[in-house]
Design a protein that fits this description.
- About 15% of the residues lie in helices and about 0% in strands.
- The protein is low in regular secondary structure.
- It starts with 20 loop residues before the first helix and ends in a 21-residue tail after the last helix.
Length: about 725
Amino acid sequence: MCALLALPAVWSAPAPGRQTPKAAQRVHQENRATTRNPHGPTLTIPCDNCHKVSAWRPIKANPEFDHDKTRYPLRGMHEKVECTQCHVKPVFTDVGRNCQDCHADVHQRRMGTNCAQCHTVQGWNVAVQQVKDHQNRFPLLGAHAALQCEDCHKRAAVGQFQGLSTACISCHQTDFQKTSNPNHVTSKFPQNCEMCHTFDSWLGATFNHAGPPANFALAGAHATVACTSCHIGGVFTNFKGRVSSPTDCGNSLCHLSTWQQTNNPKHSTSPAVFPIANCATCHNTTAWTTAIFDHSTSGWPLTGSHQMAPAGKANACTDCHVNNNYNFTSANTDCYGCHQAAWNSTPTFGGSVPNHITAGFPTSLCSQCHDTNVWTDSTFNHANTGFPLTNAHQIAPAGKVTGCDQCHLGNYSTLAIQPTDCGNSGCHLTTWQQTNNPTHATGGTAFAAANCSTCHNTITWTTAIFDHSTTGWPLTGSHQMAPAGKANACTDCHVNNNYNLTSANTDCYGCHQAAWNSTPTFGGNVPNHITAGFPTSLCSTCHDTVVWSDGKFDHTATGFPLQGPHMLRPRTTVTGAVGSMVNACTDCHIGANYTTGYPTTDCYGCHQTYFINAQTYGTNVPNHVTANYPTTCVSCHTTWVTTAWLGAVFNHTYFRIPHNGSSCSDCHINSTNYAIFSCISACHTGNSPHTNQTNTNSQHGGVSGYTYNATICVNCHKG
């Protein structure tokens, strides 16, 4: 709040029309030094927070001061209060913010100092209804809403409303002690009344039996039973006067008699399987006779014919549990224990059913073939043995086998042969012995009787396929069987039924010696392999398996690829060519010499004539001999990459040429090593200032880094 006291005349508002707001502001600024602050030096609020420059109006109740900018915004009834009612002194910062600073405490501090618990700034009486509604930690609901304050707050007359407990027993202990149905005291009921009662009335109390502390939902037949039927003698802290599980149906005071009277099965003679405390495992709260046992929990679910009729063939549990024996273990659940008669009758079944007794089948593995529906529809998964029955091996009509004993010969447990041992004497030995293309009996280990599956499948013997690539020598091109290739039978290569070939027998020469010997007659680009001394073990270097006559040699493998004029025909046009180009291998390999390192890859070795006569090939071509050029042609020529001898370029980046008409040998005084050159020894001698070191030194006085050296000149004098 900002309560302004009376101001002197100089602060009064100007007469209308006499001054503009700006003029008034200017006058105020001019008289600033003589203007007295009526609020005293302690008020530091800017003047324009309360006053307008356009009209310094006379003091009235609410100047234009924004109280929201202070720590105490004005709300409700406070908005209509005169500034001076709170700010009784001109020191506006010296004012309290608590209700009791301005309002007398009619409760004489018995209700505490927090007036906002009951009152608001809208008015003292606004919160009275809220107090009556008791909207605090204990709302007045139900019957509590009709009570007067004095009914609970006994010291309300003296303003004492604090210190009451919210627990029901604090007010209703007498009601608790007077109960008779049931007697809460003798039954030792807990004093948390809200477990059963509501705020509306003491009558109609209900208990949630499914929740704590009982944790036993009353369902089915239990829902209509009177409390005293189970809580005998008014004892509600446990069942039947003793501590036991809620699921302890067979307790002596509950369903013990019913448990003792059972006969299908008889529980009392198998207490370990049907203990008194586990009735809930099979029974529910609807009726004892609707018991259901989940047999799968025993590790042996009832399926197929084992189910109770009409789903299965069992009429009672005693069909299997003879003499009321329910103490079965895993050893009692094998089929043979119940179906021994069916086992012994297998010799009479006929058809594809083997005689289990003579076959020596294990009596503990009936479930490998039989299911729980019908014994006669047994099926054995032969794939589990590691040898699945496919194609002709299947039982007819899917395959050609009419019975298991065709392979097992009366013994199913000690089969002496391996699953893939097709040529065993009891299976396909005769077929193996009769083969003739190739003859397996004389073919060695590749056609052993135990390796039939390498080529044959279970469809038919005549569809055998051998993957020749497994030998390390795949059949491609002409080596394939006709019509894909030119071979008509394996014996075309494996002469005399020899299938014991090794890597030494797979070189081409072993089969194609005649073709090798005829190379002198082929003509054209085909070199004479004999006189050339080509190795007979490397035919595949040039030849493929399609046609011998289209052999190709990859010259790049020698480190000297054939390009430009070095290429054999056909080749692209070669410009700037000098002399003849290569037309056959013998152009370079003179005398049919194809040995390693011949001919040399040094250009001079083949092109000495071009080096000697270089000046005749063009006006700009230097005389290599008189110029004392080194014979390392690659310094200027790019060997096989160049299109011809012409166009050679030496990159003289170190020293700019031409140099005053000099030739290469003028500076390069060593004809065999052009890395050696000299300025002084070659040219700058005689009458030149470089004749001797004394003359040269005199020309370089004061030159930093100078030394007298035959090659040092180019460091500064680059042409």
